[in-house]
Amino acid sequence: MTVMDVDLMIEFAVINSEAEAGMPADWLLANSSVRPHQKSTKNKPARWTPDEDRFLLKNLGYLSFAEIGQRLGRSTNAIKIRQVRRQFPAPSNRPGWLTGNDAAKALGTDIHSILKLKERGILPMDVLPGIRGILSIKKLRLYMWAINPDHWIYFRVKRMQDAYLQRLVMLAQSRWDDEWWSTGRVAKYHGIKHPAVNDRILAGKIPATRWGNWFVKRSDVVGYQFIKTWFPGADAFLLRARNQGLKWEAIGRMMKLPGSRVAYRYYCLMK
Questions:
Q1: Number of Cβ within a 10 Å radius of residue 63
Q2: Using one digit for the tens of pLDDT, what is the confidence trace for 60-104?
Q3: Residues in Cβ contact with 198 at an 8 Å cutoff, skipping those fewer than 6 apart
Q4: What distance in Å separates the CA atoms of residue 259 and residue 30, rounded to the nearest whole number?
Q5: Nearest 10 degrees: CA dihedral of 202, 204, 205, 211?
Q6: Domain boundaries along the sequence of the chain
């Protein structure tokens, strides 16, 4: 097998590989002293210099192969072949980085949710140059994002496939003195109908975050007073039950209301 045959095989492998990616990094260009190589007068490509190899390694995943080649004065295929020969990591396999699919597995969700989070500006991800549009994120950045309580409605801890990250999130949850509630849980707590909670959210009276359904923090709704119509029969039952010495929790169970709600109504009647 000739040297030309080997080059053709490498070129074919590279073209069909997953390495067609990168992301902008103008600061690398601005701080690089690499100069384009001088073309040989004998129609043979010039040897690669250590500076060129360092530039290639630094910019894989930040610039496309075409941009690197333009900077170094070499063809796109030459850049691809050099990356394979030197066994430099492909842009999608850089140490310390995760692709969109990797991030989805770590969080126990799917790539469609990751794309939606990225499009809404919730999860900061980069898009590698190239027609494939591969998503990429630093592992440390994903970890910092995942342990933030504001983001816990976007994934389910039990489904996470990154065991280490799962432990970090569970530890953070154990130290959080709040909780995310669905609107149904809020309605049940206050003994009201579900639409009443949505109406307050849409009116901007209750802070909430939407991810499929609305979610609110427990601390924002426990003390919220919903206007509820009490019928005379319900008030009479409440007064009679309390006069018989029943506790708020017992009265609440009979009226299908939280004990705090019946207590509040009772004191309103006493006033």
A1: 26
A2: 766 667 777 888 888 878 877 887 787 776 666 677 788 889 999
A3: 183, 214
A4: 67
A5: 60
A6: 3-93, 97-174, 180-221, 232-270
Q: Which amino acid is at 254?
A: M
d(CA 158, CA 259): 32
Q: Parallel, antiparallel, or unpaired: how do β-strands 97-99 and 213-217 relate? A: unpaired
Backbone angles phi, psi at 227, to 5 degrees: -75, 120
> For 166-181, how does the pLDDT look when each residue is reduced to its tens digit (9 = 90+)?
999 999 999 999 999 9
> In whole angstroms, what is the distance from residue 164 CA to residue 15 CA?
36
CA separation for the pair 207, 156 (Å, rounded) = 22
- For residue 270, which of 242, 229, 233, 228 has the smallest C-alpha distance? 242
Is the Cβ–Cβ distance between 185 and 220 less than 8 Å?
A: no
